[in-house]
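ping. complex inputs:
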Amino acid sequence: GNSVTQMEGPVTLSEEAFLTINCTYTATGYPSLFWYVQYPGEGLQLLLKATKADDKGSNKGFEATYRKETTSFHLEKGSVQVSDSAVYFCALFFGNEKLTFGTGTRLTIIP
Amino acid sequence: NAGVMQNPRHLVRRRGQEARLRCSPMKGHSHVYWYRQLPEEGLKFMVYLQKENIIDESGMPKERFSAEFPKEGPSILRIQQVVRGDSAAYFCASSLGPSDEQYFGPGTRLTVT
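pong. complex structure:
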């Protein structure tokens, strides 16, 4: 079956540090890939997405590139802020109705 | 344009009671999905519905859980005879079509005492 494996947290960084959260997937075929963010007490918000190999999704300074050869979609940001503290979820989608999520990575940014 | 609405936001039930969770999709969306997030875990798909139809319920427990999305009104996720293990956050998402982006509601946090 399809699955998503995410870097385990929690991750704690200082403000302005470089962020990488690893995500790899297992799937038959080529899914669309997503990063969602969940701020405390809230629902999920779509952060960025990529629908085919080599696509780069970007939003709010975050980036992720769909790498077919390594089945990965790592999330990166060059300089994190305290407001980036949240839980980040990687997910895949085949257009067959349901999203398959990773377990989430809790990120805390210290001023 | 209102987003996906869920109510209640917090629900406390004693063991054995029934829990009813409501989800109003975004305007114009006729596809609804329910996901469950157990403490410190990711979201797990439960059920996918279109108006008046259950399309995929492969993630829903066979007993005590049911879902509906009537022609009029919100989608309802019902949990009968709740147990402590049902304590979780339940998220609803909606989309325009089956291959379109899913928009999530704020979730209902169910606590079973």
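The interface with chain B takes residues 4, 6, 36, 42-46, 49, 89, 95-104 of chain A (CB under 8 Å).
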